[in-house]
Design brief:
Blueprint lengths: L1 H6 L8 E7 L3 E8 L6 E9 L7 H19 L3 E7 L5 E8 L3 H15 L7 E7 L6 E10 H14 L1 E8 H10 L8 E5 L4 E7 L2 E7 L4 H11 L3 H6 L5 H19 L15 E5 L8 H9 L2 E3 L13 H25 L10 H26 L3 H72 L4 E9 L10 E9 L10 H15 L4 E10 L5 E10 L10
Helix pairs in contact: 2-4, 5-10, 6-8, 8-9, 12-13
Length: about 550
């Protein structure tokens, strides 16, 4: 029943929420507006931890310290949803026969005690599954330490964020990839610092699994080999590919061997795509993608080429958008899980859930108490306000009427001047357009004659006939070409070829509609006279005045 109510719940159109992805070495936060039809990211930040935490307690302290920086840089205080790093969440999968809704809670609790090798009383756990499927249910259990979540939630509350839900980062990543458009890959590998999340598509949806191996081990091995700090070794990765070969090979083998989720990708008949998308903070380790491709026998896409759609931008812009999209996948998936039905807080401890429900119940009771008081306000106040506003409106309309009558008289006096100046402006615009047109014609003629240093124009005759609509302005050009090699000798046919080249260039100008009546005179020694009539293309007779 709760899922049905949540499915038909209409959120406030300007509702906002902060989604925070708490990774192994950094925190990525974004503020989303989720009340409209599509998610809209207003702003996002990434805060790196000061030191790489090696234990769960150190991680909780570092994550709690990052909240104040996130709130300061985002400028946001209010509800928030968190994602726990994969190395803090134990993920287990189970399959059980489907039962009726009355027995579902008992069956889920029994399967949790069987699948999770921990005391559930000291943990916070959550279960999701396809409970509408028949005949079997596929369940996914997520388990995390209660004390870690309570420390993180307390730090978020102190910074100004009210935690509404806590989800595993792998589930949020699966929700974002499942909502993507386009050709979806059969598997996604997100390589983090201390863990790796593997998503495998099955029955149109992604199932996640966290593996306790990450890219920080490769950087630490390089730092130990070079004798430098880990931060310095991270900047030297491309220059030491030979040293990284063995750690990269061990990382790729661990990803493939420990996942156990790649079985059946090649044999799945409905799966036409044979690629695996490699993303994450350490996905660009030198040689990691080829090693995974060699182990799996599949094509592995790098983070820069893993986008679902192409933006048509420059290569640098495309890489920046792909990197930003990769950073925002978990936080956008968090908002999708929060908006979806039936989550009930995810891994949020029961005490925090009770506080949230009590605060919501108090606001609801307060609203129910204020509404009757507002409804019992004396109606005479309303009628008095309406009468006063009506009188003010009547006085305002009278003043506006007198002003409008004065404007009508003024407009009647100046309207003839406006039309006269408008017609003059049209004439001036037409003259300016013709002037610019003839300047362009003379410039084109000069450029065409500049190709031959011994050619020039002696005169031009312009005729314009406006008696009929079919008439065109014509330009009669008279030119001369000099034979520089023999100025006093008889004219040669070469001069005619030069003249034809010049006329062909003139004929190719945009303002020439056609060329007529070409004449050549070779009677003078060393000189060729040429004549041609250029029919100018029509131009608009009047400029348009808005």
């Amino acid at each position: 029943m709760r899922s049905i109510v949540a499915a038909f719940r209409l959120p406030w159109p300007f509702a906002r929420i902060c989604a925070v992805d708490l990774g192994a070495s950094r925190a990525t936060a974004a503020v989303f507006r989720y009340g409209s039809r599509r998610l809209r990211c207003l702003r996002f930040v990434t805060v790196d931890f000061r030191e790489f935490p090696e234990t769960d307690g150190a991680w909780a302290t570092a994550a709690g310290g990052a909240f104040s920086e996130v709130v300061r840089r985002l400028g946001y205080r209010g509800p928030a949803v968190l994602a726990l790093a994969p190395h803090l969440v134990l993920t287990k999968h189970a399959t059980t026969p489907a039962v009726n809704s009355e027995q579902r809670e008992k069956v889920v609790h029994f399967e949790a005690t069987q699948a999770v090798p921990l005391a559930l009383e000291d943990m916070v756990w959550d279960c999701v599954g396809d409970f509408d499927a028949r005949p079997d249910w596929r369940l996914t259990f997520s388990v995390a330490k209660r004390e870690v979540i309570e420390v993180v939630a307390a730090a978020a509350k102190q910074a100004g964020l009210a935690v509404r839900a806590v989800f595993p980062a792998g589930r949020a990543l699966a929700a974002d990839w499942g909502a993507a458009e386009g050709s979806l890959p059969p598997a996604v590998i997100q390589v983090g610092a201390r863990s790796t999340t593997v998503l495998v598509r099955s029955a149109g949806d992604y199932r996640e699994r966290s593996i306790a191996v990450g890219g920080h081990a490769v950087v630490a091995a390089l730092a130990e080999e070079l004798g430098v700090p880990v931060t310095e070794a991270g900047r030297r990765l491309p220059a030491h590919e030979a040293i990284l070969a063995a750690p990269i090979d061990r990382l790729a083998a661990a990803l493939v061997l420990e996942s156990g989720q790649f079985e059946g990708i090649h044999s799945r008949e409905e799966q036409a795509d044979d690629r695996v998308v490699l993303t994450g903070e350490y996905a660009t380790l030198p040689g990691l993608a080829p090693r995974i491709a060699a182990y799996l026998g599949l094509r592995v896409d790098s983070p820069a080429s893993a986008g679902m759609t192409s933006t048509g931008s420059a290569p640098g812009r495309e890489e920046e958008l792909a990197r930003t999209r990769d950073q925002l996948r978990v936080v956008s998936g968090l908002v999708r899980l929060y908006r979806g039905p039936g989550h009930d807080g995810g891994l949020l401890p029961e005490q925090l859930r009770a506080e949230f429900r009590a605060a919501r119940q108090f606001r609801r009771q307060l609203l129910m108490g204020v509404l009757p008081v507002a409804a019992l306000l004396p109606p005479c106040v309303h009628y008095a306000t309406v009468t006063r506003l009506a009188s003010q409106r009547a006085e305002m309309l009278s003043a506006q009427r007198r002003e409008l009558e004065r404007c009508v008289e003024l407009n009647a006096a100046i309207l003839p001047r406006i039309w006269n100046e408008r017609s003059q402006a049209k004439e001036y615009c037409g003259l300016l357009e013709r002037r610019g047109r003839w300047i362009g014609i003379l410039r084109d003629l000069q450029q065409c004659l500049a190709a031959d240093e011994a050619a020039w124009l002696e005169r031009m005759e312009c005729t314009s006939q406006t008696g009929t609509k079919q008439s065109r302005p014509t330009l009669r050009v008279h030119g001369r070409i000099l034979d520089l090699a023999d100025p006093v000798g008889p004219a040669t046919p070469e001069l005619g070829d030069r003249a034809r080249r010049i006329l062909d260039q003139i004929r190719g100008c945009s303002w020439v509609e056609r060329m007529e009546d070409e004449r050549f005179n070779l009677t003078e020694p060393g000189t060729l006279r040429f004549e041609a009539t250029l029919v100018v293309a029509p131009i608009c007779e009047e400029a348009t005045i808005p």
